[in-house]
Amino acid sequence: MQGVSVSTMAAPASGGSCRAFTLFRGDLKINNRSCMNPLMDSPFFWRHCMMRLYSINTNGTKRLDSRIRASRLFNGNDKEMDASIEISEATNEEILMFFFQLDLETRIQYALNTEQYEIAQQLRDKLTEVETQLIKQHEDKRGYSRSEAQDKSLHIISLRVNLQKAIDNEKYVDAADLRDEISKLEIESLAVSAKVLAYENASYAYRLGEKVRHKIFGYRAVICGMDPVCCESSSWMGIANVDKLSEGPNQPFYQVLVDVDDDPNLLVAYVAEENLNSIDKPDLGRFDHPYASFLFYGVDTAGDFIPIKQLREKFNRPRHEVPMDTQNGNGDDNV
Asked: Rounded to an integer, what distance in angstroms lies between the CA atom of residue 227 and that of residue 220?
């Protein structure tokens, strides 16, 4: 056996190039203990696997050759833009790490089913490492961590106890310093709480699996992730001209898979909500992308993709039910 494919979890989606992948084939043969690659013990194992998963040049400087171009008015100046400005390597890596997590979970289950418990434990240890990395990535992206917020709250409580002791002992200089430190921490804590609320109460115009069209560049894409605000780096925002958007970075941004027939060089983009339009339904046309088969089960009768359960859980999004009036199309050939 050369590897367990993610197709055990997700049915192939529409499109000829949307076939399931097998991760690190040849590096790990689950049914043979002697074939456990020493690389499994390396902290860089997941990076190696991601590169084997999809042989694509992830150097953004070499991929900025998109043929889709458009003109847009910025503050009265006609400025030519290239679709490649919205390429997001961070988003691409996040998607690949998500797939790596899914693939490891499948391999663990296979090892358990075949009573290969030692291998299952090794894979479980690797999964724990990957999940730790994903949590860190998640926190870095959002600019806060729940543990950090809890630590701040506990620290504030401790400082208030010390403040009361300083007042009782008439150490007013110390009390003043403690009061200033408490005020600073409370401001930081409020900022973290505001970010938490922004993510929990975010409102999105588009949903996971929905097909959309870019207002400027015209390509078709499918939503595979979302953030309530732009979570990219300041350098990326500068290249993407985010400050020129009417809503700037303080609007939902979407991770989208771009139809390779529309732009084979773009693959994954990070797009502001104001730059997307819904596509008239039903849209049962062919949609090709190499990641679609492990992020989606297939397409519904309206032509939108059906996200796998793990993807919905990742972004805390509900299951979408297709309205009855759109269930009159024949989408059998596209599922």
From this structure: 20
